[in-house]
Amino acid sequence: MLSDVLLASWGIRVYTHRMKIVKVRRVGNSNVVSLPREFEERGYLPGASVLVEELPEGGLRLMPTEQVRERIGGIGRRLVDEHQEALRILAEHDPDAA
Questions:
Q1: Adjacent-strand bridge partners of 61
Q2: Do residues 24 and 32 touch, judged by C-beta distance below 8 A?
Q3: Is residue 97 in some structural domain?
């Protein structure tokens, strides 16, 4: 059997996470995908807001908006930590600084 690493090096995605096949259906003027209840533990609760991102290869990625906020905050903290010296220099040369 081919290893996951070898398949990935050929550009073949290997899915090892939980997967479900669901159907797209029409509700009013919208297309709807129903998510199985087992995804509720990951934040996909009734009424939850989700980000839908179209990927370059044509797939879609769903992410609860709370996770998006957490990721953006984490990236911002990491960038500030990694570039403290540059931010200090910019602050010293800010003409609007009080």
A1: 53
A2: yes
A3: no
Q: What is the largest CA-CA distance in the chain?
A: 66
What per-residue string of b and e applies to 77-93 under the rule 16 or more CB within 10 Å gives b?
eeeeeeeeeeeeeeeee
Q: Which domain holds residue 20?
A: 4-92
How many C-beta atoms lie closer than 10 Å to residue 62's C-beta?
Answer: 14
| Count of domains forming the chain | 1
Residue 74, both tokens:
């984490």
Q: Is the distance from CB of 83 to CB of 63 less than 8 angstroms?
A: no
Sort residue 31 into left (φ over 0), alpha (ψ -120 to 50) or beta: beta
pTM, two decimal places: 0.51
Per-residue pLDDT of 56-93, as tens digits, reads 999 888 888 887 788 888 888 888 889 888 888 888 88
Question: What beta strand segments (E) does 1-98 contain?
Answer: 24-27, 30-33, 50-54, 60-64
94 vs 16, higher pLDDT: 94
